[in-house]
Amino acid sequence: MSCHAEDESVRVLDEGDGVELLVYLVTAARTQVDEAAEYAPMRLLTAAGRLAEMVEPNASPGLRPLLRDIRQGFSETAVQAGDPSRYVERLDALCRRVAEYLVCSLGLDRSP
Amino acid sequence: MNDAVLCAVRTRRVARALTDAPVEHDQLRTVLDSARYAPHAGNRRLHRYVVVTRPPLLRAVRMVSPGMIQRPMAAIVVCIDWAQVHSYGFAAESPGPYIDVGTAAAIMLLTAHSIGLGAGPVTSFSRTALATILKLPAGVRPELIICLGHAATVQPPAMRRQGGPRWDELIQWERD
A17 CB near a chain B CB, below 8 Å? Predict the structure, then answer.
């Protein structure tokens, strides 16, 4: 994986998109009280996918592959019962992917 | 006639991806009108139907509806008028009004399919937020949204589960 250090902050989200995501998260917290527990990770992944979609047009080239991986990592209709043996595995793979991005972009693997 | 109905029943699918082609007013009226023919207990007319077509309003509806994957070109919000429900002496926990939401939704989904529209039901939304956005009168509670549009060629996969019962296992004939 190539490493792209984040040298400076890039503005990637406009206010309208930010509000859309904010409202989604707040209302999802409420709907989840009444819904099956298996929907909880699905809603969070949907939020992550929408954020990735909003951010991608203005994201730096180094971030775009990660955003694509997040969007393609899970379908918006995927639940653990669909593939019980691999669901957590795939979530862990996505977590590993974001962690590797952080190591690269924050220069954590460089000598102090 | 019967073959056509059966064919429509068997070919209808939930449309979770819609194009930006508009829904014509006549199509919307046809779908709405079909709800009149849905079986409603006692023909009591306890439900209200709110039509949403304005893009900013549709966007707001989608924002407060985490279960709305599609971006609809129109939406029909099926509501229960609880003041009317109580006036008939229904208990607050009575399932009747909810069952009638389901029958109306089923008929509207089938009608949408029969006139070439893509449609999908959504129940995962904040009732409080949606009622506020739509300026619903007190006591009128939104219970289900029918999303309407034209189905995109590529659809998200249907929800799949492993290890569930087979269809035949869900059916009991007589007492056996």
Answer: no
